[in-house]
Each structure stands twice: as C-alpha cells, then as structure tokens.
Amino acid sequence: MAAYALRRLLSMLPVVGIVALFVFMLLHLAPGDPAAIIAGDNATPENIAQIRQRLGLDEPIWKQFLVWAASLAQGDLGRSMFWNESVATLIGQRAEPTIALACSTLVVAVAIALALGIVAAAKAGTGIDRLVMGIAVVGFSVPVFVTGYLLIFVFAIGLKWLPVQGYAPIADGVIPWLRHLVLPSAALGLAYVALIARITRATMLDVLAEDYMRTARAKGVAPVPMLLRHALKNAAVPIVTVIGIGVALLIGGVVITETVFNIPGIGRLVVDAISRRDYPIIQGVIILFSGVYVLLNLLVDLSYALFDPRIRY
Amino acid sequence: MARPDGIARTALAFARRHPTIAVGGALLLSMALVAAIAPWIAGDPRHMTPSDRLQAPSARYWFGTDSLGRDVFARTVHGARVSLAVGLSVAAASVAAGLAIGLVAGYYRRLDGWLMRPMDGLMAIPAILLAIALVSLNKASVGIVIAAIAVPEVPRVVRLVRAVVLTVRERPFVEAAVGSGSRGLKIVLRHILPSTVAPLIVQATYIMASAILVEAALSFLGAGVPPEIPTWGNMIASSRLFLARAPWTIFFPGACLALVILAVNLVGDGLRDRLDPRLARRM
Q1: Nearest to residue B196, comparing CAs of B115, B273, B106, B282?
Q2: What predicted TM-score, i.e. pTM, was given to this entire model?
C-alpha cells in the first residue's frame, strides 16, 4: 500500500509538470511583454527592467522554464507587484475562509447527496424518486451566483435569520463562524449535491439488483442496515470517484461564491487580481488549485481499498 | 388540411415519447427566437433614463429598470444573444478540436501518450481559473471568451472519442476494412468516425450547458466579454449592491440563465436516453 501510494504520488509529477508548462506558456504566448504583464498596470520602466532581469527573459525560453519550474518546486509562486508581497504569503493569509468554505460544503453536500440518492434508489419509480431527481436536474442547472443571491434575498434580507455576507474567523467564536458559512455552503453545494445524488442513485440501483441483495433480504436483514452496509458499501467506488471529480466544480464555485458573499478568501484574491491585471496571483492560484485537485483525486484512488477489500495495492 | 394535422400528431407523439427533449427543446427554441428578434421587440439595452432609476416592473418597463435607469427587459433579451452564441460556438469548437485529437490518439497508438499526457494536465486545471487567466492575458472580446471556455472542455471530448475509437477499432468490420486494403485515414473517417457521432451529440449538449454557465460566471466576475455588451452575468454583477432595493434587476437575468441551462440539460438527458442507452442506465 505504502509503495503503491508512493508510486502514484510520483506519477502525479508529470501531470503537475504539464500544468506548470501550460501556465508558463500561457504567459509567454500572450500578446505583449511578459515582464510588463507581470509588473501590472502601475509599473515603471525600471520595475519592468528589474523583472526582466530576475526572470531571465533574455535567456532561451526552455532555460526560462527550467529556472521558473525550479523556483516553483521550492514553493515560490512568484511575487505580486500590486501588493509587493509574495503570492504564497498572500494565499496563506487568505487560506482560512476558503478552507472553511470548501470543507463545510464538501462534508454537508456529500452527506445530503448520499441520503437523497439512497432514498431515491430505495423508492425507485415512486413520486419521491422523481422529486429527488427533479431537484437534482434543476440544482445542476442553477448557477452558484443565482442561488447565492436568492438565498441572501430570502434568508438574510427577508427573514433576517443569517448574515448577508462576510466571514467571521473561527478564532472569534464557532457560532458566528458557522452562521456566516451556512448560506455560502448551501449555494456552493447545490450543484455538487445534484451531481453526487444522481450517481449515488444510479449505482445503488445497480447494486440493489444483485443476487446478494436478494439473499440479504431473504435472510431478514432490516432495510436500513441492508441499504447502508450491504448496498452502499458495494456502491462506494463509483460514488467516491465522482466525489473526487466533482471537486473541480467546488474549486471553480469557490471563486464565485466568495465574490457573492464577500468572503476574503483565495477566490476573492483571484477576482480582485482580474481587474488589476495582477497576473502572478492568477498564475499562483491556478497552480495551487490544480495541485489540490490532483492530490485529492490521488486520495480517492487510494481510498478504493477501504471500500473494496478485493482491491489490493 | 390533412398534412398539418399529420405533422401536429407526429409532434405530439414525439413529445409523449421523449418529454424531456420536447420540453427542453421548446424552451430553448423560444429563447433562441426571442434572442434573434431582440432588436425589434425590445428597446435599446444601453439607453439610460436617469429619472427612471430602479423602477419596479410595470407596463412601461416589463422587468423594471436598473441603477442607471436602463430597461432590464431590453438587457435581458439582448443578453440571451451572447449566452446562446457563446454556448453554441464553444460546443462546436471544443467538439471539433476534441474529435480530431481523439481520433488520432485512439487510432495511431504511437502518438497516444504524447497527446494524452497534455490532456491529463489540462484536465487538472479548474476550467474557470484557466478561462480567467486566458481572458486576463488578452484584450476582452467575444472570441477570446469563446476560446477560453472551449479550451478546458477539449480534453473531456478527447477522452470520450478516444474511448470509442479504442473499442471500435477491434470490431470485425474494421478488421475487414484493414484486410481489404483500406488505409489509416480512410479507416478512421469512413469506419470509425460514424460510431463517435451519437455520444458526441450528447456531449456537445452538455458542453453547451456548461459553456453558458461559465460565460455567465466570467461576465459576473469581470473577466468576460467587454462590459458594454449586456450579458446576464454582468447584469447581475452590476446590480448586486441593489439586491435589497431592486431584486428584479438580479431576478430576471438569473431566472433566464437558470432556465436556458435547464433547457439545454433536459435536451441532453433526453438525447442521452435515446442515443446512448448504456450511459442512460447509469445516470
């Protein structure tokens, strides 16, 4: 298992390397001087010359890439001229809200989606099933920011149950922290719930049709343990795969959700960078989020062995 | 008089057999029609009437006015044009590129690794962030937005096409074609390409839905088409401070956006059930 994990970790390196190559080429193939792009709009000619010097832009392009990739490998994501601060530091300062939002959404959405998917499969063909699948189709179609403003309008402005926007650090108390996370997580999680509920229902239907499920029913296993221990466990691998793939949806959604709810996280950092043309930040966050995505999907691969003892590494 | 009656009956029978395609298709067609005749049914989407700021929906302004006194109905109707045009263009562009790469990767095995590793890398980059980077590095234009949304979709098409090619190339009719002397390109185009059409039509529909969503998101974040072109995304962005006072400025573009994406997804689900029964059973 450990050897396999290590091997898979190493096999990630080419993918991450290709991501880096893409991001690098993006900057160098764009119209305009890369040094001027990195320097941003308010740069003086001296700034630009300094950046040109530091990045070695007069060197051959393959050498530039290797130098850049080497500093990337040491955790250097570049420097934002607007903030006059390293991108890694800026991301670090804004990590807490983003991690809180992503984790709370992930946990709650998966729990709700599994429950909905299992109920829909158990009651396949009934009104409950059709209702759940209808919600899933609609939920997958409504954009995060539309859901977000609708939730704000109803629950924050109308009913005044929850704060309109913003973020409260967990250090200032758990209750305000949670209250600020409810609406953003709900908006962000809707599409994710829809995606996972659909795959859960489909896989559960396959498993429920198996002979061993009839055997379980015949020997008198109660319905709930039967669904959870016998069926869900056998359905786990495809569901977990989709949970991993769907994280891409969450990552893109975080950027939008933080803008809707004015949460000072990594997503806001990127969106603010757009209007300032602060390219080093956009580039750094792309590399970070791609790395997180690849790593999570590696964990998903490794988790298969937990659900299915036949899978050995 | 018998013919129109026959057509109506056929249409009704089709709608009964494929309700999702019929409902989604009807919604989509009516939206497309409204978008096409927008200049004739709605006023100027850029015209500002400062004295009529933030008016509630009325007989004069069906969807109300925004904070600059612009007609929300006119802007919403014109916004449909950008959404649908971007959605269709992205679907066409990414399917064309993905089909070409996928056919080559699936058939010419020596090129497979060289083509697929970059695709794996591209797939690991979150689509919205890649699009933000592409848009922010170039001058904002509709063409750049289409390219920026299409590029992240390409690897998904490539994987689909490649998987089809890998199964089809082992089938007896392809072997027979090879045996009777057909050469590479002819085999790919005449004998393998047709098998990719059905799954690609389904995939293209889903890509269109996601492209409409991403376009709106980019416009909302300020990384979309130039701000003077009204889109549902930038309408919502420019009205977000007025959510409490003038919810209609956000509600109407938001509802249209959700409705169009829902319509396209419904058509996609219906087409999948009809064209790809193996996949249909899974979802």
Answers
A1: B106
A2: 0.88
Domain coordinates of chain A in residue numbers?
94-262+297-312
* Cβ-based contacts under 8 A for chains A and B: 142
Across the interface, whether the CB atoms of B117 and A277 are under 8 A apart is answered no
CB < 8 Å to A199, chain B: 283
Q: Are A94 and A265 in contact (CB under 8 A)?
A: yes
DSSP calls for A21-58: HHHHHHHHHSSS-HHHHHH-TT--HHHHHHHHHHHTTT
Put simply, the answer to whether A256 touches B125 (Cβ < 8 Å) is no
Are B258 and A271 a contacting pair at CB < 8 A?
no
Name the minimum distance, in Å, from the CA of A270 to any CA of chain B.
Answer: 9
Q: Would the CB atoms of A143 and B127 count as touching at under 8 Å?
A: no
For chain A, the distance separating the N- and C-terminal CA atoms, rounded to the nearest angstrom, is 5
Longest CA–CA separation in chain B, Å: 78
Asked if B283 has any chain A CB less than 8 Å from its own CB, the reply is yes
Query: Closest by alpha carbon to B121, among B152, B161, B90?
Result: B152
ipTM given for this complex: 0.85
* Cα separation, A22 vs A258, whole angstroms: 26
Distance of CA B79 to the CA centre of its chain: 15
Q: Is B129 on the interface with A (CB under 8 A)?
A: yes
- Inform me whether the C-beta atom of residue B113 falls under 8 Å from chain A C-beta atoms: no
Q: Determine the straight-line distance between the first and last CA of chain B, rounded to whole angstroms.
A: 43
- The domains found in chain B, sorted by start residue, are 50-282 (1.10.3720.10)
Q: How far is A249 from chain B (nearest CA, A)?
A: 8
pLDDT band at A206 (very low <50, low <70, confident <90, very high): confident
- The label of the residue with tokens 């040491």 reads A74
Mean pLDDT for each consecutive 10-residue tract of chain B (283 residues)?
Answer: 69 83 90 86 78 76 78 86 93 95 89 86 86 84 90 92 86 83 80 87 92 92 86 87 82 91 91 71 44
Number of H helices and E strands in chain B, helices first, is 13, 0
**Is the distance from CB of B38 to CB of B78 less than 8 angstroms?**
yes
Reference B108, options B172, B179, B185; nearest CA is: B185
Cβ(B56)–Cβ(B40) below 8 Å = no
Q: How far apart are CA B117 and CA B110, in angstroms?
A: 13
CATH number 1.10.443.10 given to A94-262+297-312:
no
